[in-house]
């Protein structure tokens, strides 16, 4: 991938922004093409219906396409055709995913109706939709970091590479699952919000945030965790404009109140059927779901809990049936810890500079511009809130790290910032190809060492049904 010509624009000799954008096409287009090819291979490698909840999601789509209505958890059973894939169903023979808002499933139902062929043919076409959505997320990742770090090559190039090659994100973008749409909508909200910090949030921007958040709530109730981030971002943009408090309240009504209003029919329906707006309490009643629930402190204080979350972020494909070797997890953990420790050190340095300035002392130049500081605060807030969401789900049932994946761009940005600011300019240039090679190697290992042997090795045929 021809990255080197672009990286001449290091912080020490920053090119004009327009030149940076033109030069970025030299590596971004190949990256997008590589992602597309990789995802098409994953679509064919991963056995049908073996993605997490893929059975339930597909037959939710098929149910809507057949005009059978939304249904109620515990009363909607999967068809007999799903029996060979029962081991990949959380509550077989029931379809637990009908508890989810139906935007993703309704949109795919229209495509399902138009498609010829049988179940497997339609499944693979619907998987291609996930590939297209994943491609859009990689593009938004680039737009986001170009907005915040236009002249930082490691971050500007590294974040899209990280997102495109993160193994579990790639898995999400190769199966039928509403989480990939949730990631797209969350990423769009964050981009609009961050752009508003630079350019201001006009009427269209605020209305766009409200509509995107409403679509997110109609995709999954957990999108509500984005609303506090939106509220803070809107407040910061309002603070710059110095308008009246009433203007801020109107902005919050449009950006945070409108999505809740749009999703209110679904929340009322869930409350009527299940006794709470999200239906989470009904999930607690499912065998093997509620049995694995834990208390907040029980999770926070358990090293095994956090070890399992690391495993879920990088491996444990298809209902945790394809884990990595422990050695691979340890290597990933040590490398990832370096970047996050670097980020904490940068935070400590920033606090030290602020204290020094308060005391009237010179503490050196700031590590970030005001826009970058705001961006990192909002991205960090999004990651933190979704981690809280992971913990909350754990109080109801077993939890999974993929619930934090809507903040994948934030995770990638924080990871790369933790490396970038502690490297000299030349070291950042070298770090980009190193990151690219390391993540390409990881993807090759995932495919050749884990996925292909699981599905197509000795006895692997049993893993993908008849």
Structural write-up:
The chain is mostly helical. Among the domains are: 51-114, no CATH class; 179-278, no CATH class. Helix content is 68%, strand content 0%. The chain is built from 19 helices and no strands. It is globular.
In short, what is this structure?
The protein has 466 residues and is an all-alpha fold. The chain is built from 19 helices and no strands. Helix 5 (119-148) runs antiparallel to helix 6 (153-165), helix 6 (153-165) runs parallel beside helix 19 (425-456) and helix 8 (179-199) runs antiparallel to helix 17 (370-394).
Separation of the first and last Cα atoms: 40 Å
Estimate what percentage of residues fall within beta strands.
under 5%
Find the count of extended strands (DSSP E, 2+ residues): 0
Structural class: mainly alpha
Q: Low-confidence parts lasting 5 or more residues at pLDDT below 50? A: 1-19, 462-466
Biggest sheet layout: none
Shape: globular
Overall mean confidence score, pLDDT = 88
Task: Enumerate how many helices there are, as a single number.
Answer: 19
Q: What is the helix/strand order?
A: HHHHHHHHHHHHHHHHHHH
Estimate percent helicity: 55-70%
Return Rg in Å.
23 Å
Topology (SSEs and partners):
Blueprint: H1 4-7, H2 17-45, H3 54-65, H4 103-114, H5 119-148, H6 153-165, H7 167-172, H8 179-199, H9 203-217, H10 226-241, H11 245-274, H12 280-284, H13 296-300, H14 303-314, H15 317-320, H16 326-358, H17 370-394, H18 408-420, H19 425-456
Helix pairs in contact: 2-5, 2-6, 3-4, 5-6, 5-8, 6-18, 6-19, 8-9, 8-10, 8-17, 9-11, 10-11, 10-17, 16-18, 17-18
């Amino acid at each position: 991938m021809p990255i080197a010509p672009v990286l001449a624009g290091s912080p020490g000799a920053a090119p004009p922004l327009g030149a940076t954008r033109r030069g970025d096409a030299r590596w971004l287009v190949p990256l997008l093409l590589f992602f597309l090819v990789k995802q098409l291979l994953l679509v064919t490698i991963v056995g049908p219906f073996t993605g997490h909840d893929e059975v339930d999601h597909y037959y939710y789509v098929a149910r809507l396409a057949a005009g059978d209505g939304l249904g109620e958890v515990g009363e909607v059973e999967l068809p007999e055709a799903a029996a060979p894939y029962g081991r990949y169903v959380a509550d077989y023979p029931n379809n637990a995913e009908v508890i989810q808002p139906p935007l993703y499933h309704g949109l795919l139902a229209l495509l399902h109706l138009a498609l010829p062929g049988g179940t497997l043919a339609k499944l693979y076409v619907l998987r291609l939709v996930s590939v297209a959505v994943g491609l859009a997320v990689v593009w938004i990742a680039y737009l986001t970091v170009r907005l915040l770090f236009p002249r930082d090559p490691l971050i500007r190039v590294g974040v899209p590479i990280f997102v495109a090659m993160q193994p579990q994100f790639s898995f999400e973008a190769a199966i039928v699952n509403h989480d990939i749409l949730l990631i797209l909508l969350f990423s769009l909200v964050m981009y609009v919000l961050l752009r508003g910090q630079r350019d201001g949030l006009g009427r269209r921007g605020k209305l766009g945030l409200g509509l995107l958040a409403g679509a997110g709530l109609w995709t999954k109730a957990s999108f509500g965790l984005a609303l506090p981030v939106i509220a803070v971002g809107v407040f910061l943009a309002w603070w710059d404009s110095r308008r009246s408090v009433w203007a801020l309240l109107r902005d919050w009504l449009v950006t945070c109140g409108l999505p809740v209003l749009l999703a209110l029919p679904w929340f009322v329906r869930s409350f009527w059927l299940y006794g709470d707006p999200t239906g989470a309490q009904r999930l607690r009643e499912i065998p093997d779901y509620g049995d694995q629930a834990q208390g907040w402190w029980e999770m926070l204080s358990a090293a095994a809990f956090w070890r399992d979350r690391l495993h879920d972020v990088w491996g444990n494909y298809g209902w945790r049936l394809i884990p990595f070797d422990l050695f691979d997890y340890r290597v990933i953990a040590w490398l990832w810890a370096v970047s996050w420790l670097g980020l904490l050190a940068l935070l400590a340095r920033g606090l030290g500079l602020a204290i020094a300035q308060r005391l009237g002392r010179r503490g050196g130049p700031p590590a970030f511009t005001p826009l970058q500081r705001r961006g990192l605060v909002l991205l960090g807030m999004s990651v933190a809130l979704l981690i809280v969401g992971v913990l909350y789900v754990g109080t109801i049932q077993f939890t999974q790290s993929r619930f934090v994946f809507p903040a994948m761009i934030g995770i990638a940005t924080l990871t790369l910032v933790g490396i970038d600011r502690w490297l000299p300019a030349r070291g950042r240039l070298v770090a980009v190809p190193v990151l690219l090679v390391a993540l390409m190697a990881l993807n090759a290992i995932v495919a050749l060492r884990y996925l292909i042997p699981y599905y197509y090795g000795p006895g692997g045929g049993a893993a993908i049904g008849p």
